[in-house]
Design brief:
Two copies of one chain form a homodimer.
Chain A (H helix, E strand, L loop, with lengths): L3 H11 L11 H7 L9 H14 L13 E4 L12 H13 L12 H5 L3 H6 L1 H13 L4 H14 L15 H12 L3 E9 H5 L2 H5 L6 E11 L7 E10 L5 H9 L6 E4 L5 H8 L6 E8 L6 E2 L10 H6 L5 E4 H4 L9
Parallel strand pairs in A: 1-2, 1-5, 2-3, 5-6, 6-8
Antiparallel strand pairs in A: 3-4, 6-7
Chain lengths: 337, 337
């Protein structure tokens, strides 16, 4: 079975994007058109103006390279969040684990998950869903979990777009990640998703190494059994939910300085956007607005898919850039190689 | 008042160490003698052999640059831990805060701290010391706390060596940090000390940026008061103690991959050394052994200063390098400019 990560690497190469993978074509690609998937318009203009301002020595907005840190939400900001990919993983994982847990066939929330009954799963409430997620994610070392995620991604396909989830990432955002990196930025993911789920593929798909991925965490324990080897073990206990006000808290803990640019798409990113864009100096906030029902999914406000409500209200007064996916993006997903 | 960070920067320059600060002399300095403060001997040889093995393409021990991660304990490994610098900070801080807390004059553990009665403070037990540390560290934003630490470091002096604590760092370890960095390593501090205490000066003193400092943490909250600004606030509640088995746990959480080299000096570093050096491939573990009573302090095993007992027993079977500070270091501290 071909690894999706290798597929992604190949795709990016075919797309003329070796720079994302650290190839020598970086300078040349940037010199041509750094954002080919972004149509001329206010968002593209705002991005380029910000990058010019913070990287031009002597400019009033200049920011020294060590302080050039950008934070990106993942679900709905860097890749498609409908359906939630990690939930699809958990639904597949519960089936793989079921033979070892015969009681699951008759016990909620596992029965619902095994039957693919999402309504019944949702009805189990936050506690039920949490139990389901912990049971499908814990009980392994980080290395084992990484291999499990990699193997699943290799064969899973997005139900509507019929392509690997590692290719339902947003092509314009891949270009943006590459461009900020070429301007001396260190890009961090700050996601409500599980940190080790994202770390399994973020370097190959986004060019973001594991140590620049911040996310929700379950507890791990150090174990060194007699005659065994020292390992970390992922236990079924929640450690931290990296969402809403948790995002600036995690940024403070992991990065230890305030980023100068933040990218999100929902109310779960509001506090991160506020925290990043309110400090003195040239700052940048951007919201990916899902308004493209034809090429992706249209949702905001009180939608069943996600909520962009308070953050959308706050965009104008805070001078955050709101990207219309429908009007400002030439393409949504990378073409398949 | 001159900032100690500026002092450090100047000292390093005077010592012919611009490379640590990212100057262009790096390659040249390394080409001369990369470790001038390390005497010829087993430790120096082991370090140089390891670096050659992991950076020589085609060599059996070769490690690609993204995986070249090294973790360093701080207290007793990178700087002198007798007395514990952060405890000295807390003792000074309790005096500065006392006018706002009149009850402290008659309440333990604060009375003991205010009177500098370390025996009485120790007698207050883990709970009392924790209360004392939280009260002297919390109640501010990370930016405010950083400024408080910086201001204190500018005037505090080591009681025996009569120099700023930012200069009671180990000159041989500064050279080692510079050398690993020149070999493509990303160096992380993994300390039992408070993460924001170390982040206030680690970049200037060690060339290690805030995002590469892992330590013990107190909780922070995101607050955005009406009419105010969004800030993190450090609250007097313990979040995580980064010591012993907590060190590999924190490495997994923050870095997300196993480092290939670990440097420590006490039993609190044992699990980190085990975790790092037990994975397949060329790995390196080093213990700084405090055996130099004349130039620093001699201690290990059951000493009053620190305990190096289980880790020392584990060194030989695990092929960890044990550095005799007395016999293998030409100098201990950087000369004052």
């Amino acid at each position: 079975m071909t690894s999706p990560l290798i597929l992604s690497r190949r795709h990016l190469g075919l797309l003329g994007m070796p720079a994302l993978l650290g190839g020598p074509a970086k300078a040349q690609a940037v010199a041509e058109d750094p954002l080919p998937s972004w149509k001329p318009g206010p968002s593209r203009q705002a991005i380029l103006a910000f990058l010019a301002d913070v990287t031009t020595p002597g400019a009033p907005g200049y920011v020294a390279p060590p302080e050039r840190i950008a934070v990106f939400d993942n679900d709905g900001t860097l890749w498609c969040e409908i359906p939630t990919v990690q939930l699809m993983f958990a639904l597949a994982r519960v089936k793989a684990l079921a033979p070892r847990h015969p009681a699951w066939a008759t016990t909620q929330p596992f029965k619902a998950a095994l039957e693919g009954d999402e309504a019944a799963l949702a009805a189990s409430g936050a506690e039920g869903i949490s139990e389901f997620l912990l049971a499908t994610h814990a009980g392994n070392t980080p290395e084992e979990f990484n291999a499990i995620v990699t193997e699943w991604l290799a064969q899973a396909r997005h139900p509507r777009f019929r392509r690997p989830y590692t290719t339902t990432v947003y092509q314009p955002m891949l270009e943006l990640l590459r461009l900020t990196q070429a301007h001396g930025f260190r890009n961090y993911i700050v996601s409500g998703g599980g940190v080790e789920f994202i770390r399994a593929w973020s370097e190959q798909v986004y060019g973001i190494p594991p140590e620049q991925v911040i996310g929700s965490t379950i507890r791990t324990e150090f174990r060194f059994p007699h005659g065994g080897k020292p390992e970390l073990h992922r236990v079924p206990s929640l450690d931290f939910i990296d969402d809403g006000p948790g995002k600036p808290v995690a940024i403070g803990k992991f990065i230890g300085r305030r980023p100068i640019a933040a990218f999100g798409n929902s109310d779960g990113d509001l506090e991160m956007l506020q925290y990043v864009t309110s400090s003195p100096g040239r700052r940048f906030g951007l919201i990916v607005h899902h308004d493209d029902a034809a090429r992706e999914v249209a949702y905001d406000r009180q939608s069943q898919f996600g909520k962009l409500d308070r953050a959308l209200d706050q965009a104008a007064p805070n001078h955050w850039t709101v990207v219309s996916m429908k009007n400002e993006w030439n393409t949504v997903f990378p073409p398949l190689g």
